[in-house]
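FAQ

Q: What does a record look like?
A: Structure on top, sequence underneath. For example:
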């Protein structure tokens, strides 16, 4: 689909008709709370579908539900999310990356309800890129394991519309995927843990370093940091159970509830293509992770 044409087409439509237009274009979607970003369905973006009957049933039940779209290979689109809360730092960061040639191939620019911006890029189906957050730069990346709120969703307060998602700019002449790793290194450089791909001892050392890093994450980075760390362990060949054992206590120390820890690690293993952890794989003496609640572990967007 051409996101610019689709966003222009849905702009004047009420939400149920906009949802139907997305499905008609082959874009998987799911309902989010009216005037908000939290999924209304139990499994969040994992329930996104192009089934017109299911989408019609959702928006018949929730006619004012906002529209969520999974990012990455699920929809075919990655998104660079520019934050504008409290300052223009996000836009300044994006402009620096643009001048460096890192974000120049967008397919569409969308105004977000908070005053920020979403830049859409084609996702490479053979190279999923996990979502991340560069808090200091006020720029997030929404790829595999994430989702975005799309036009014509709106945010209200006190019955009045205070923000909307709408088209800002059409595609650049050469639309191309964004290199998410290069963008993050440019905006928020940090030493990456080194991995030795063989031997249980080296994987244990990798897990220990990552756990220490996760435990030190602050609010706003915890979920995405845990997702990133779990992806690295999956890529290094660590078992799902060992990843849960190593990263779970660290993430809880950082402030994440056990249920969200489990679901985030599971999402990371799915994104990498490894077998996800199962609830019964928790370490001896630990309680089984609770059942997933709506939106837990999802990448909520600005």
């Amino acid at each position: 689909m051409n996101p610019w044409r689709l966003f222009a087409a849905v702009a004047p439509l009420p939400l149920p008709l906009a949802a139907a237009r997305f499905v008609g274009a082959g874009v998987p979607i799911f309902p989010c709370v009216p005037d908000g970003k939290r999924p209304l369905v139990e499994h969040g973006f994992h329930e996104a579908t192009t089934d017109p009957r299911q989408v019609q049933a959702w928006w018949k039940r929730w006619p004012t539900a906002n529209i969520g779209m999974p990012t990455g290979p699920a929809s075919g689109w990655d998104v660079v999310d520019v934050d504008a809360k409290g300052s223009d730092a996000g836009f300044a960061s994006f402009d620096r990356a643009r001048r460096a040639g890192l974000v120049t191939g967008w397919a569409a620019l969308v105004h977000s309800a908070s005053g920020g911006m979403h830049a859409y890029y084609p996702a490479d189906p053979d190279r999923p890129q996990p979502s991340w957050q560069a808090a200091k730069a006020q720029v997030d990346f929404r790829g595999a394991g994430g989702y975005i709120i799309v036009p014509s969703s709106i945010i209200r307060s006190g019955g009045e519309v205070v923000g909307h998602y709408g088209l800002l700019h059409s595609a650049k002449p050469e639309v191309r995927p964004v290199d998410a790793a290069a963008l993050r290194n440019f905006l928020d450089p940090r030493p990456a843990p080194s991995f030795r791909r063989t031997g249980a001892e080296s994987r244990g050392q990798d897990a220990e370093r990552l756990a220490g890093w996760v435990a030190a994450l602050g609010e706003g980075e915890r979920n995405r940091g845990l997702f990133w760390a779990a992806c690295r362990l999956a890529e290094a060949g660590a078992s799902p159970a060992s990843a849960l054992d190593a990263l779970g206590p660290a993430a809880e120390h950082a402030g994440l509830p056990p249920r969200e820890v489990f679901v985030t690690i599971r999402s990371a293993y799915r994104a990498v293509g490894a077998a996800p952890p199962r609830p019964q794989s928790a370490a001896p003496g630990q309680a089984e992770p609770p059942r997933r609640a709506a939106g837990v572990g999802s990448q909520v967007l600005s």
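Q: Is there anything notable about this one?
A: Confidence is low (pLDDT under 50) at residues 192-199, 280-302.
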